[in-house]
Amino acid sequence: AALAAGNVNQPAGDYDEAITLGDTPLELAGRCPSMVRLHTSADAAVSISGAASITVRGMTLSGSGAGVEVVSGHALLRDLHLVDLGSFGVVAVTQGRDASVAIDNVRIERTVDVGVLVLGAEANIDHSVISQVAPTPSGQFGRGIDVEYFSGRRGVLSVTGSVVEQVRQHGIYISGSDANIDRVLVRDVAFGSSVDAGHGIHARRHDAGEPSATIVRHSMVERVVDTAIYARAGSIEVAQCTLRDVLGAPGNGVGYGLSLQGDEAGPAPASVVQTKVERAQSVGITTFGAATTLA
């Protein structure tokens, strides 16, 4: 169903439909997620595109596709429960026009592929939980948050006061993008493969050459595989964090608290301040071609 402009209050009930929101400003509001439940077999329960600002709040979204899809649009998602989905919880993509999404007090659980996927767009995630993300049927991904350079644009991610747990490959994956992570708990990240081992936070240069710039503050990463925080060929600042219980990766037994690396382009700047590493299988902090400052 396509909705007109204004404020739309969704009555309590169960709905079998998908909703499309476009160029007209609108707030779609349910009373609370336990009372308004939308289930659909469409590609996304809610699809948002266009230049207008859209707010969706107070409901549960489930179905065989994604929860919310934002393509070159702007969305505020608040007080939602996105659960039992066959694809992404939230996906935001810039295609021609900018896209942005703000996720506030949203629980995303039992999704497939990626909890929140950000491609060349901006995402602000606050006081939310991303949990139980399964791999695709072919065994790929299962990541909590994935932000990437896309279509000539850097992704921008801000995560505060949130939890990422029970995911696979990487808790938070950053490729050619800017990320600010503050007061975030990342835990229980399962091994994916020798390439995507099970890192808590993984930041890298995108294949197009764009480095990542990452700040992690006042956060905890625990019960992960191979590396708690991995940064390659991009700047990173880690301050007042706790990294613990890093298991060795199957096959090589590697388990690092921090792995900081440069590449053929030269040393990567890294700063580690007042950060505790406990019970890492191999080494607390390891650097390979990174210009690292410890304080």
- Note the total helix count: 0
Q: Beta-strand level of the residues, as a percent range?
A: over 45%
Tell me the overall shape. Answer: globular
Q: Could you tell me the mean pLDDT?
A: 94
Beta strand count: 31
Strand count, sense and barrel status of the largest sheet are: 20 strands, parallel
Low-confidence stretches: none
Query: Any idea what the radius of gyration is?
Result: 19 Å
Going by helix content, strand content and strand pairing, the class is mainly beta
Q: Whole-Å distance between the termini?
A: 56 Å
Into which percent range does the helicity of residues fall? under 10%
Characterization of this structure:
With 295 residues, this protein is mostly beta strands. It is built from no helices and 31 strands. The chain is globular, with a radius of gyration of 19 Å. The N and C termini lie far apart (56 Å). The model has no long low-confidence stretch (mean pLDDT 94).
Give short descriptive properties of this protein.
295 residues, mainly beta, 20-stranded parallel β-sheet, 11-stranded parallel β-sheet, 31 strands, 0% helix, 63% strand, globular
Structure summarized in a few sentences:
With 295 residues, the protein is an all-beta fold.
Task: Spell out the blueprint of helices and strands.
Elements (H helix, E strand, L loop, with lengths): L5 E5 L2 E4 L2 E3 L4 E5 L5 E5 L3 E6 L3 E11 L2 E6 L2 E12 L4 E4 L6 E13 L1 E6 L2 E5 L2 E6 L8 E6 L7 E5 L2 E6 L1 E6 L2 E5 L2 E6 L8 E6 L8 E5 L2 E6 L1 E6 L2 E5 L2 E6 L8 E6 L6 E6 L2 E5 L2 E6 L1 E5 L1
Parallel strand pairs: 1-4, 2-5, 3-6, 4-7, 5-7, 6-8, 7-9, 8-10, 9-11, 10-12, 11-13, 11-14, 12-15, 13-16, 14-17, 15-18, 16-19, 17-20, 18-21, 19-22, 20-23, 21-24, 22-25, 23-26, 24-27, 25-28, 26-29, 27-30, 28-31
